[in-house]
Amino acid sequence: MKFIITGRKIDVTDGLRERIHKKLGKLSKFFGEDVEIHVTLEVEKDRHKVEVTIPFKGIIYRGEEENHDMYSAIDRVVDVIERQIRKHKTRLEKRLKENAFIGDTVNNGRGSDSQSEEEFNVVKTKRFAIKPMDIEEAILQMNLLGHQFFVFSNADTEEVNVVYKRREGDYGLIEPEF
Questions:
Q1: Dist CA 58 CA 45 (whole Å)
Q2: FRET label pair with 53: which of 7, 61, 150, 172, CA 20 to 30 Å apart?
Q3: In angstroms, rounded to a whole number, what is the distance separating the alpha carbons of residues 52 and 169?
Q4: Longest dimension (CA), the chain
Q5: How far is it, in rounded angstroms, from Cα 28 to Cα 1?
Q6: pLDDT value of position 94
Q7: What is the pTM of this model?
Q8: 149: which residues sit within 8 A by CB, 6+ positions away?
């Protein structure tokens, strides 16, 4: 496993690196040796935050934990990732065996802006690979990431769709209409 460790407002000490390798190394039984694990450590006042992202065969596992102690946060984030794997084990096994997705890069078409730039302030732009998947897979991926919505290419209709979590706990689907 390849660890990519980043510190924000913290120096990543050898002790922290060792703890990360020891605790997250346990996940090799699920992923094997060729997977990259992105770990971000952040400190703000007495808040210690650990974010772990593991892209694996088109699925992204993500865990985030805060604690007053960085070592405890590392321990807890490993539990979060393991819980995700166990919770979605059957679905993930089925999906990984089918291997039915192809990675494409989304092309953000930039047409003419009728609005002036002063009215809308875009503070962040993201680009990501969009993969054909069914609606259930998209909901699973959204839940694994811990997001409220997820953009994906619908494998059935070959159109870009959005699934989102509703306040009631159910899910919604946004489809384009031309």
A1: 36
A2: 172
A3: 25
A4: 56
A5: 7
A6: 65
A7: 0.57
A8: 142, 162, 163, 164, 165
User: Do residues 59 and 42 make contact, with C-beta atoms less than 8 angstroms apart?
Assistant: no
Strand partners, 40: 6, 51
Clarify whether residues 78 and 128 are in a common domain.
Answer: no
Strands in 2-8's sheet, in edge-to-edge order, are: 2-8, 36-44, 47-56, 59-67
- Region of residue 44 (phi > 0: left; psi between -120 and 50: alpha; otherwise: beta): beta
Domain that holds residue 104: 96-108+123-174
How far are the Cα atoms of 97, 115, 146 from residue 141, in angstroms, in the given order? 16, 34, 9
Residue 69 lies in a domain: yes
Specify the number of domains making up the chain.
Answer: 2
Residue 13 lies in a domain: yes
Q: How many residues does the chain have?
A: 178
pLDDT tens by residue, 74-120: 999 999 988 888 777 766 666 555 543 333 322 334 444 443 334 66
For residues 22 and 131, the model is more confident at 22
The pLDDT, as a whole number, for residue 106 is 29
* Confidence bin at 13 (pLDDT 50/70/90): confident
CATH code for the domain of 83 = 3.30.160.100
In this structure, is residue 113 part of a structural domain?
A: no
Q: Is residue 79 domain-shared with residue 13, that is, in the same domain? A: yes
